[in-house]
């Protein structure tokens, strides 16, 4: 597995530079004093020497006493009191009412980074201003689709390693088809956070999250703690159910919780990311976050709960005029629809036995680069092993051998249609800024008003296990990453 490495932060040399300046000043003063005293008489020189020696002896005695006092003070002080000597160090805040750490992840599907600036969102802004935010958004994994990303968030694995390589796909060995209602454990690899928490003897709850209904390992989707997906459940009811967990006896309050909203993804697909109805949906999400915050405040535990608000991907506008049609490649190669597992925004093709994938890729790219295919410049086709390594999208037999990267906002279809409807889509290269989503964290282990650089969502698994102080499973995140986001503990 390929770990994501963090850039190290250079230590400031300000103190060293200050010490050097002080040493230079002392040397200069010493040299000046020596020069001015050389013209004095021998008697004055002897007197000055006596005074100088007396000063040296008294200074040495004072320094010795100070060192002895410091030694006694520090050796007698417990470690906790020594931490507080650094008044500039911000530490995680102790729990005031809860008996153990709690992490609540709230996912707002399709909440593109930047939506938070569309209008006044008092509750989300409260979390941002008093918490920690990824300054330029959270980076989803490729493909930037709902199921691969939600499962990467809770496993710390890229899709090639956790097995959910698309929202829909076919297993080339068994011929079985995966869809968003598939709960058989053989599809879902890796160890999701609810299973990790359960392995440690703690409780977890999931209110709608891809993979949470899968009975796997120590996780059996416990009644009342694991909600079977039902899109029609009102968002307010979801919030209230999560709040009710905090009314349970202390030992029964889940250490890890998830909460999921389908919006603003629905509006994004239907109307595109710039429509007024996106703004309305975002305001509704903010209202729900306000309901959650008030409920926690009424219980006196808002400052005790580590809330992580995020999305799974962004959104970009699309129109039918921005289409690449596979039938337009017929002069170079025919791509029957039976070969295609997904069209857009991730084109994936599995030719039947007897066809060379390399030849198919070469002929498709020849046609796309010819200048005779409409929008051909906005599709490039690869053997999966030749994809950019930053996508981490080759190390699974489930990934079809041919993958097409589609230009931002463009779509691939079998046959060109005459419609001109516009909407929105996601699933594109995660290097596109439009695919970024939000990361906002508030709670005792997050600094107030802090901005951190963007990072991939595979880092969140280790972030949660660090907060809960539990041992996690192997994953693609960096074990040192939590140190760059969380406050140090007492």
Automatic annotation (TrEMBL):
<keyword id="KW-0472">Membrane</keyword>
<dbReference type="Pfam" id="PF01663">
    <property type="entry name" value="Phosphodiest"/>
</dbReference>
<protein>
    <submittedName>
        <fullName>Alkaline-phosphatase-like family protein</fullName>
    </submittedName>
</protein>
<keyword id="KW-1133">Transmembrane helix</keyword>
<dbReference type="InterPro" id="IPR002591">
    <property type="entry name" value="Phosphodiest/P_Trfase"/>
</dbReference>
<feature type="transmembrane region" description="Helical">
    <location>
        <begin position="46"/>
        <end position="74"/>
    </location>
</feature>
<dbReference type="GO" id="GO:0016787">
    <property type="term" value="F:hydrolase activity"/>
</dbReference>
<dbReference type="InterPro" id="IPR017850">
    <property type="entry name" value="Alkaline_phosphatase_core_sf"/>
</dbReference>
<dbReference type="GO" id="GO:0005773">
    <property type="term" value="C:vacuole"/>
</dbReference>
<keyword id="KW-0812">Transmembrane</keyword>
């Amino acid at each position: 597995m390929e770990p994501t490495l963090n850039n190290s932060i250079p230590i400031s040399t300000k103190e060293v530079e200050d010490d050097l300046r002080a040493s230079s000043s002392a040397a200069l003063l010493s040299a000046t004093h020596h020069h001015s005293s050389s013209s004095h008489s021998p008697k004055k020189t002897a007197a000055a020497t006596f005074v100088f020696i007396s000063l040296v002896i008294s200074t040495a005695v004072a320094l010795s006493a100070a060192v002895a006092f410091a030694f006694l003070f520090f050796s007698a002080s417990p470690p906790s009191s020594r931490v507080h000597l650094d008044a500039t160090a911000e530490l995680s805040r102790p729990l005031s009412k809860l008996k153990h750490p709690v992490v609540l992840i709230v996912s707002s599907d399709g909440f593109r980074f930047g939506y938070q600036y569309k209008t006044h969102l008092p509750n989300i802004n409260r979390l941002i201003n008093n918490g920690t935010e990824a300054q330029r958004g959270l980076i989803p994994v490729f493909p930037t689709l709902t199921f691969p990303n939600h499962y990467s968030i809770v496993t710390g694995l890229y899709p090639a390693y956790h097995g959910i390589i698309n929202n829909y796909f076919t297993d080339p060995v068994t011929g079985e088809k995966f869809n968003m209602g598939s709960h058989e454990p053989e599809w879902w690899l890796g160890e999701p956070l609810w299973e990790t928490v359960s392995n440690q003897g703690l409780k977890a709850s999931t209110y709608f999250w891809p993979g949470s209904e899968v009975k796997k390992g120590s996780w059996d989707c416990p009644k009342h703690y694991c909600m079977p997906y039902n899109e029609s459940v009102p968002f307010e009811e979801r919030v209230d159910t999560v709040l009710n967990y905090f009314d349970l006896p202390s030992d029964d309050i889940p250490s890890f919780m998830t909460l999921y909203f389908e919006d603003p993804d629905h509006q994004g697909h239907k109307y595109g990311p710039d429509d007024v109805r996106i703004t309305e949906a975002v305001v509704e999400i903010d209202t729900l976050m306000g309901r959650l915050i008030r409920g926690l405040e009424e219980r006196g535990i808002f400052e005790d709960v580590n809330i992580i608000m995020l999305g799974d991907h962004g959104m970009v506008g699309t129109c039918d005029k921005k289409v690449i049609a596979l039938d337009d490649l017929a002069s170079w190669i025919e791509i029957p629809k039976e070969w295609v597992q997904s069209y857009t925004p991730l084109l994936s093709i599995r030719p039947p036995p007897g066809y060379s994938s390399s030849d198919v890729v070469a002929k498709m790219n020849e046609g796309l680069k010819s200048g005779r295919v409409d929008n051909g410049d906005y599709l490039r086709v690869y053997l999966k092993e030749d994809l950019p390594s930053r996508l981490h999208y080759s190390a699974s037999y489930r990934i079809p051998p041919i993958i097409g990267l589609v230009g931002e906002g463009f779509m691939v279809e079998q046959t060109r249609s005459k419609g001109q409807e516009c909407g929105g889509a996601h699933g594109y290269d995660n290097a596109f800024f439009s695919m970024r989503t939000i990361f906002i964290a508030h709670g005792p282990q997050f600094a107030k008003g802090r901005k951190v650089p963007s990072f991939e969502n595979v880092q969140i698994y280790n972030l949660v296990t660090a907060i809960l102080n539990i041992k996690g499973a192997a994953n693609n995140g960096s074990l040192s990453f939590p140190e760059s986001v969380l406050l140090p503990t007492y």
